[in-house]
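User: Show me a protein chain along with its predicted structure.
Assistant: Here is one chain, sequence first, then structure tokens.
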Amino acid sequence: MEPKTQHTEDRCHIVTTKQKDDDIDIVILDHVEGFVYFPLSQLDKQSDKFQRFINQKKDEILAGQFETTLVDMNDEDPCC
């Protein structure tokens, strides 16, 4: 029996999520498409691949397990 491998084109990872009002913003890093950003409320408008992936992780997303603190660049001093 051959080992199960995930096809390269199906590989994606959640980079971060951020609670925003009544929605959750999601950033995914996809092997083919690069960084993809969308609100959870628009999941139905995403590709089948992303819908399957996010639905598998939905409980963790809703629990805040992927949420990180993001820097607001407007509050930062310019470096150059």
